[in-house]
Amino acid sequence: SNIAQQVTVRIFTDNSAGSGVIIKREGNTYTIVTNHHVIENNSNKLYPVMSGDGITHQATLVSTPQIGNLDVALLKFTSDRPYKVVETVKTNHLLVGETVFAAGFPNWYQSDSSQMSSTRAWGSRAFQLTVGSVEMLTSRTLSQGYQLGYTNDIKSGMSGGPILNSKGQLIGINGRSKYPIAGIGAFSFADGSRPSIEQFKKMEPLSWGIPASKIRN
What's the whole-model pTM score? Predict the structure, then answer.
């Protein structure tokens, strides 16, 4: 959990917030990967990014348009502080049943009274780490690069955060929560076809991520 907390960042946009992970360092410049849908509707070209130590950095978008239609975007910020960079693993090392850790910053917190409160003012204190396992690796890629089905609960705001293996290495990026509102419509393959009802029933109860090996930085 220590590695996850060090490499995961919170990205603030006009009306929302998401997560990201530090994947590269060159001198004082750090590269973050997140989901394209986290940053796409921002009016500003600068994104406040909060690192695990609670410090806010101004990041700029590197990759636009989207990398090969993936739901992925790269941001860069500079700092003279030493931040940990996650080690990335190629996806062919993934095994169904493997334990995975998914990290990020949920936008909402449900208190005992079942009232939802925003965590925007919490900053990095909203950090959450979930434990689960790889449940499905589709032979064909879903639209926007999604291919990794896993059992961890991914809440709104955790999009763009890292999926790590038990060694703390990056195997994927969070992006889609369980039981999407669009139902089977949320699961189209990259070629435009849809899964069978039988396939869909296995896919629907899983969170979905983009394998780290698809990301070129």
Answer: 0.94
CATH 2.40.10.10 fits 91-214, yes or no: yes
List Cβ neighbours of 95 (8 Å cut-off, separation of 6 or more). Answer: 134
Torsional class of 194: left (φ above 0), alpha (ψ -120 to 50), beta (otherwise)? beta
**How is domain 2-78 classified at the CATH fold level?**
Thrombin, subunit H (2.40.10)
Most confident region among 20-34, 37-51, 114-128 by mean pLDDT: 20-34
For residues 103 and 162, the answer to whether their CB atoms sit within 8 Å is yes
C-alpha neighbours within 13 Å on the C-beta side of residue 178: 11
Q: Which two tokens stand for residue 100?
A: 């995975």
| Residue-wise pLDDT tens digits, 167-208 | 999 999 999 999 999 999 999 999 999 999 999 999 999 999
Q: How far apart are the first and last CA of the chain?
A: 24
